[in-house]
Amino acid sequence: MIKQFFVILKKELAAFFNTNLAYILMAAYILLSMFITFFLGGFFSINNADLFSFFYFQSFVFAFLTPAFTMRLWAEERKSGTIEFLLTQPVSITAIVLAKFFAAWVLCLIILTLTIPFWIYMNIYFETDNLNILCGYLACILTAGSFCALGCMVSSFNASPVSSYIFTSFLCGFLVFGNFGRLISRAGLPERISSRIQNSLNFDKHYYDIISGQISLDNLLYFVLLTVFALWLNIVSIDYKRN
User: Fold this and answer.
1) Collapsing DSSP states into helix, strand and coil, what is residue 109?
2) Rounded to 5 degrees, what are φ and ψ at 197?
3) What is the pTM of this model?
4) Does 19 map to a domain?
5) 54 and which of 37, 107, 112, 236 could share a cystine (Cβ 3.0–4.6 Å)?
6) What separation in angstroms does the CA of 155 have from each of 51, 96, 123?
7) DSSP single-letter state for residue 212
8) In the chain, how many domains are there?
9) Cα separation of 163 and 237, whole Å?
10) Domain carrying residue 129
């Protein structure tokens, strides 16, 4: 299974870089992130020792960027009909799903490393809180992983990469912008229980806790469980297709 995983991972990464898609998305990420950081994030008007202006908007950026990495992973296979050939091979479904997921996630990690020169520049000319900045990068890595898993899951149900991108963007956007408070409050639960459920489900709470340096088990579990659940659904959908 491990050998199969690395073979497929290498193939998927090569497929990204054999086209201009990866390079276009890298350039788009840098331009969008820097624009938001300096113009919308008020970079020069607040204390940015922890690069708060940069990390605050990264969840929004990834919500609409990662679907572009994942939209073709399964949808293209279904559209071209190669998924039938792939599923008839003696290859573990889990290995295929994980390899495609990690291919997208690795690309997200690559584009994150492109922002390291900005961090180095800040260290040279300003006093920075590097521990908090590391927490910010951790939040971005976990967010990218969760969104990539959701994107792979959605792609496995679609034969159109465009539809996959739209539905994944909507799902990720709903997590980032959605407020579960109103839905939960209508359930008529006691306020204490309702508050705990809201804190458990709300993406914002966990993401902003981590970029603020408050790394706790519940914050990490939120992203891990979201990623694992999406990958499990991905495996179930592909296994159903094979059977």
Assistant:
1) helix
2) -65, -40
3) 0.89
4) no
5) 37
6) 33, 14, 40
7) T
8) 1
9) 17
10) 2-11+58-242
